[in-house]
Amino acid sequence: MTRLRALVALVALIVAGGLVAVIPATAASAAACSASWQASAVYWGDAQVSHNGRNYRAKWWTQNEAPPGTTGVWEDLGACGGGTTPPTGGACNHPNWTAGTWYATGAIVRYTNGLYYIAEHDNPGYDPVVSTWYWEPYTCGSQPPTNPPTNPGGFVVTEAQFNQMFPGRNSFYTYSGLVAALSAYPAFARTGSATVQRQEAAAFLANVYHETGGLVHIVEQNTANYPHYCDPGQSYGCPAGQAAYYGRGPIQLSWNFNYNAAGNALNLPLLTNPWLVQTDAAVAWKTGIWYWMTQNGPGTMTAHNAMVNGAGFGQTIRSINGSIECNGGNPAQVQSRVTRYQQFVGILGVSAGANLYC
Known about the structure:
The protein has 10 helices and 8 strands.
């Protein structure tokens, strides 16, 4: 009561003196969110974006570095949302996010990290932490999780191990994108004993390392090859263009028939929009896992079957690039893959197994 009388007296004194007292609001509303950051977009100095509920300003030219980034290019302008942020409270009984499921604008899901996201635009099940134009964070209840697990989904490779394997990786290839992609093929790295699961994960990541130069390259570097990957003999042709089906992603998906098959399997429009593989990390990882789980390539079995049925790492090489590298075709390339596999199983604490070469 004493503090209230003092405040009233202070206001009266200020008004009597000819001044108007402005008492600040106890809780200022957050600024409106700028357009969501997109990995494929080019941003020049002073461009403003929003990411994970905060606004940022670019200090200079940047592309493919998510705010807040590691180079200092993004200036944090603070939390955003204003009146558009969904209210807190209410029952947190929203369904788990499922890759490949159609979500309409306004849909709320629980992601694998235990946090909630709301669809800002209709989308066919894009990853909420990767496709930030489609999803925004959503506060559900009064006490959202503050310590998400470091290896969500029970993946046998933790985020720390992943970072150890790929210390110089491109920021596009996120661990969260990889974990999100696992839902497309639940048997991947979850079949057989704990040792076999780790061997398969190491084998996949070792081949990925070789194909992308350590997860550095998102797209095929030799642009002269781009027009060669359209097979006009396919009934569906090349609707995205003659030169649109070049290698992309962790296993460098190429050719119109592979984009068509992968798109059909993953329920994604990859034949008409192959660029999704280089702009959405979860989609990129899904195409790599799709090839690993379903395609024999030049080999006689899928790479997945090679690892879980005891055929050995050498057969994964044959399934991916055996026509060029195996049977003495390029022993240096084979050795590069084997050496990386031996390193990765060491990180995961298991043996490499037999039949390492092809």
